[in-house]
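Entry 14. Ran structure prediction on the chain below.
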Amino acid sequence: MPELIIQILKLLFALFVPGFFLTLPFSFNHEERIFFSFLFSIVVVPFIGLLLHLTLKIPFDEFLVNLVFALAIFIGIIGYYIKKQKLKTQNEKNKEESKKEEKTNI
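Output, structure tokens:
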């Protein structure tokens, strides 16, 4: 029985976590993020594995699966960081523009 629970958790991890990290750079509400997390895990993650297999000649085994999961998580975190930096600079520009407008209105 515990093996079955572990297998189910592994399956949920494989079908959700890589896609969740790949959706971090995008602006989705809660339900959309869950849907696209499963979608990206099913579509994008195998595509990344196939690209790695064809370009780097990595055999299809556990190493490739772990590498693809790690890359998906890494790409998602980097994309999220870039998104946050862009939003930060946009907010700073908006504050500067609003201050300039206030000065011209006075």
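The radius of gyration is 20 Å. Will compare against last week's run tomorrow.
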